[in-house]
Amino acid sequence: VALTQFPLKAGIDPNRAFVLHDVPTDFDLSDIEETAQSVKVFGRVKVRDRLTDTQTGNNLVLCECRQDIQPDRIPPHVQPLNGGPVWKISLLTESVRSADDFSAKLKKLMVEEGKTIDDVSALLSTETPQENSPESIIRAVGDLLAKTMRPTSENTASRRLRIFSGQSPTPAGEESLDSWVEQARLIIEECDCSEREKRRRIVESLKGPALEIIQAVRRDNPDASPESYVEALESAFGSLESGEDLYLTFRSLGQQRGEKLSDFLRRLERSLTKVVQRGGLPSHRVDRARIDQLIRGATESEIMLLQLRLRERKEEPPTFLKLLSEIREEEDHARVRHESNTTVRQLKAEI
């Protein structure tokens, strides 16, 4: 459905109109208007027309504001107030913009994809000089998008965040705040996708009170970063303890009765990560703090500490992953020795 069909049919000013995509057919006009008005820059919004998208079966909804729309302040999507997949926002003025906007669009695209003009130039360098035309630039941008978007599509399933609502106790099938934050930070730090895609994945995983917090963040700042989303949720639902308080809690942790040393180490690491995030300990002191507390708190695994010679290695402590690998290997050896001794005792008893 062509966007330019809407203003002709409804007779409204395209500078004050926009289209919402992928709106379910069962949404009331009032729900659509309230959702659109959650984008602060739109102000008061009225639904003017609806058309069915034959490809998706959902509605395209034409909306009108009371003032001219400022395109650079409009987010690409809006989250329905009742939850569910985001709705894409298209401005009617976009369909009639001139080619003079190409430079601005290209710059915006490169920012969103984390690329520079050198990346485009590298793709153009294989073209002959006479091919440095608008067509060749478009082909280069297409190649650039193909390269940057391919990892995203391949990792979508494995990188999807689980649901977090902020409710306490944590409902069945949802993540606790700590677990959700861990996953979200991993996506933010390691995913090759754009900032927009990271924000979309975070929003898709939220509902209830957690979603309301992010809607408030987006109203105040439509361009808020994914990191800001996570920080807002931590402020709203996380512990109010300072970094110093969290460090004291970390220093009080001890191995529980029957707890394996590797499990104790993982528990220490979760606590230590929070300490560093809240500024309770410089990152360069993490390895030393970890091994100190492991030795101090491992009251159930004294023999294993001796076998691993951890006290002698405090001045040059191993990283978390190396230490975990060594402990698990030693635990496996201990298990094999125990099973062998049990078998020998059984054979002797039979004799």
TrEMBL record:
Organism in which the protein naturally occurs: Oreochromis aureus (Israeli tilapia)
Protein name: Paraneoplastic antigen Ma-like C-terminal domain-containing protein
Coiled-coil residue windows: none
A Pfam short name: PNMA
Domain Paraneoplastic antigen Ma-like C-terminal: 164-324
